Amino acid sequence: MSDDDGMVRGRATAEMVAQRANVSRVSVSRAFNPHTSLKPEKRELILRIAEELNYTPDRAARALVSGRSHLVGVIVPDVCSHWESQEIDALTTALQNEGFATLLFKTRTDYSMDEKLLAYMRGFNPDSVIAFVENVKPTTLVQFLDRAVPIYVHYPNPDEAEPAQDGPLHDRINVLQRSGIEQAVALLQGYGARRIAYVSGLTRSQANSAREQMLRAVMAERGLAPPIIAIGDFSYDAAYAATVDLFRLGDGADAIFAANDVGAFGVIDALRHELGLRVPEDVQVVGFDDIAQSHWKSYNLTTVKFDLDERVRALVRLILRRLKTPDAPALHETLQTRLVVRGTVG
After folding, report:
1. pLDDT at residue 34, as a whole number
2. How far apart are CA 336 and CA 307, in angstroms?
3. CA nearest 115: which of 86, 137, 84, 83?
4. How many helical (H) and strand (E) elements, i.e. helices and strands, does the chain have?
5. 335: which DSSP letter?
6. Angle at CA 174, nearest 5°, toward 171 and 179?
7. Is the dihedral of CA 154, 167, 114, 59 positive or negative?
């Protein structure tokens, strides 16, 4: 650093920032950690001087001292689909606000994961790993983790009030689908629907299986015949084709419940443009997720909402709770679903 202009030659250090701000070296470290207490004016001064000096903390050095990498691994089946892309965006933003960086890993098409990638992930020593795919089992994942406890999304079965945890320690979010699906079936039944079809997602998906089981249970409780199953894969094209087959090869349906919103879009377009049917006058449609596109006027989709912001907050809470109490037993967060009524039922 030159005495006349204060400019930094080479990489600035925490000591340089501390000297310029007239604070301790520890205060500089605390200023970059959002979870430590520091007077706001002191934090602001330190961060301003750090910016002037182009100083950034050495993450590797901090990890050696603290034992934390401030990295979170995220395992996803897809990065392009509407729900996953919106979730990754929201989750990454929330993690960054808490001082974490995100490591993104994508599974194979069968939802399994190359163990070479898992070994590569281990090299980063992440503080936490969120697995959005149940095929990468805790028994497999923990072999490649040191201190991190993985987080899974779980969809309890209709008769599973308090799901037991099997295998190695892992935390999870329990998504309770009953409330939203009950509201959807009640609304469809109230508008006269008796033959209800379910356009499924991928058969190997736990979310799809649990959704179908819950729909069956709710319909049986309300005195309705089991849903007609039309095989899809969560995609627009598969749902479109399944809907055409449902009416041209089968006896059709009064209402269609799609496993996700993108599938519901395919259902609606097949009904309107291929089959010449009106929505909701001839066939009513319900989706699942409430992605951002669901309120678009072309679809105006009635859907079971799985609140994305709430889910992201729950995931961040699990990470912070686990880091605060690393030896705690399995941690759970529970989320509900609810129906958002728009124009495809009525």
Report:
1. 67
2. 8
3. 137
4. 12, 12
5. E
6. 170
7. positive
